[in-house]
Design a protein that fits this description.
The chain has 262 residues and is α+β, with helices and mostly antiparallel strands. It contains seven helices and eight strands. It has three domains: 76 residues; 78 residues, ACT domain (Alpha-Beta Plaits, 2-Layer Sandwich); 58 residues. This is L1 transposable element RRM domain-containing protein.
């Protein structure tokens, strides 16, 4: 009987112990309870001040970085503007220097052209051009003398006669005379040729030829308008009014009007 009592006490003890200490595997399956708001720790005032100071410090750093970047950008723009201004000033200075050099060169070229024109004009002074007179090879001088003698009653001293080549083989002769008086006589008498298709002109330089070409063009326009026109060396008469070529203005001017303006 004592044996049965002992077993009963031992069984009761184990049952109580199991109730007091549940199975660990069973205990791990239960979810732990979250702490309540009251149980959470609130930051202190000092901690809040530290957080605020940190935020303000970060703001200041960001603002300072932005200002530095802005200053660097503005400095770069300033340097770039200064460089552009410097380059523009250098370019303008170069342009001024080039203008001066160009004027010097232009004046020098004009002076050389004037010298060449003067010499060429001097060399051609006693020459005449005869257009439309056919001559045989090797006899141009003799046949020109005969033509001037029979048609113009002139006996000039001819130095030489040379043919000027043309595309359509139209005969053009350059006659070099010994003196100005012989040329003047021929130019005065050439009007007796009348309607003959032989023309006697001055031996012109390139510039003189350009001027005479413009005078002829003007004469053609005036004749188309029904006006009476006569032309001569750098001169023109339109309905009795005299015009001459002004070398400085590079155009025809009316002589009466020029006299009044003068």
């Amino acid at each position: 009987m004592s044996s049965d009592l002992g077993e009963t006490v031992d069984a009761n003890y184990k049952r109580k112990r199991n109730k007091a200490s549940p199975d660990p595997s069973q205990r791990s399956k239960k979810t732990s309870r979250s702490p309540s708001r009251e149980e959470q720790r609130k930051p202190t005032e000092n901690e809040m001040e530290e957080i605020k100071d940190l935020i303000n410090s970060m703001r200041c750093e960001i603002k300072e970085d932005m200002q530095n970047n802005k200053d660097e950008l503005m400095e770069g723009i300033k340097i770039n503007n200064e460089l552009v201004a410097k380059l523009r000033a250098e370019f303008q200075q170069k342009e001024i220097e080039w203008q001066k050099e160009r004027k010097v060169l232009s004046d020098r070229i004009a002076k050389l052209e004037h010298i060449v024109e003067h010499r060429e004009k001097r060399d051609r002074k006693n020459n005449i051009i005869i257009k439309g007179l056919k001559t045989n090879a090797g006899r141009a001088k003799e046949e020109t003398e005969t033509f001037l003698s029979t048609k113009l009653d002139a006996t000039p001293h001819i130095r030489q006669v040379r043919k000027i080549p043309t595309k359509d083989d139209f005969p053009i002769l350059c006659v070099e005379l010994e003196n100005w008086e012989d040329k003047l006589e021929i130019m005065k008498k050439k009007k007796v040729l009348g309607q003959a298709k032989i023309y006697i002109e001055n031996d012109l330089t390139k510039e003189e030829g350009r001027i005479q070409s413009e005078i002829r063009n003007r004469a053609r326009e005036e004749r188309q308008k029904g006006n009476r026109v006569r032309t001569s060396y750098q001169r023109m008469t339109i309905n009795g009014k005299n015009w001459r070529w002004d070398l400085q203005l590079d155009r025809l001017v009316e002589e009466d009007a020029q006299t009044k303006n003068g």
